[in-house]
Amino acid sequence: MRQPIFHKALITGASAGLGEEYAKQLAVLGTDLILVARRLERLQELAAELTREYGVQTEVLAADLSREEDIQKVVQKIIDTPDLDLLINNAGFGGKGKFIEDREGEAEQMIKVHVLAPVVLTRAALPAMQKNKRGAVVNVASVAAFSPFSGAMYSSTKAFLVMFSENLQSELLGTGIKIQALCPGLTHTEFHQVAGMKVEAIPEILWMAAEQVVRISLKALGQNKVIIIPGWQNKIITFFMRCPLTYRLVRWATKQKWLRERANL
């Protein structure tokens, strides 16, 4: 299937990780970019690099999507960009503790970044896409959406993105708009270090490069699939977590104290 060509894309969480990789791969294809993240200096450096190397137009917008006023700032930018044909809801973070121990409002912040922001930004982008009869929205979820090992809030918010994407695509049948829920697993980015996760003991075979994940995501936008699980290892893991024959075994494993301690739950 031929990879779709996009004219202008807005990417949240664009200063690092998968967001930065989306920006680079889209710039190679000639897509103009609006880069959104909290760290303005890193956005400006990336924008200058992509314009210099690939000749694409780049704009930057500093925004913290855990703040509702900043979400609205990005909404306004989307409304002011009627030729936007690709929205990538990539911004996110991993929880640093158990839900019951959360005293700093991390759960509420995660809901805003993983749930509220993608919903509001998608709603802002769809009218112009529908008018133009083309466009796509990528919601970066995770294999954690299917996992009982990944934290109460992180798994729940990522599961929301999967179901939101599936049901929204059903609503948009025949409009020319594609919705994708990308569900990567362990990916070499700074995400896990920032979240304080212990990754040293995880076998290298379970990891993927950000470049691979993004390449699979962009190519899949030419297919009639909503849920995209990149990598054979992630497909196997997700199969065991969803298969009726192994579902009860996985749930039993989550109740084992030694395993929960090793998973830092």
Count of the separate structural domains: 1
Q: Which second-level CATH architecture applies? A: 3-Layer(aba) Sandwich
Number of strands: 9
What is the C-level CATH assignment? Alpha Beta
Give the CATH topology. Answer: Rossmann fold
Task: Give the strand content.
Answer: 5-15%
Largest sheet: 7 strands, parallel
Question: Please, what is the oligomeric state?
Answer: single chain
Features of this protein?
265 residues; alpha/beta; Rossmann fold; two-stranded parallel ribbon; 49% helix; globular
Task: Please explain how this structure is put together.
This protein is an alpha/beta fold and 265 residues long. It has a single domain, classed as Rossmann fold, CATH 3.40.50. Helices cover 49% and strands 14% of the residues. The strands form 2 sheets. A 7-stranded parallel sheet has the order 3-2-1-4-5-6-9, with helices on both faces. It has a two-stranded parallel ribbon with strand order 7-8. Helix 1 runs parallel beside helix 2. The longest helix has 27 residues, at 106-132. It is globular, with a radius of gyration of 18 Å. The mean pLDDT is 87.
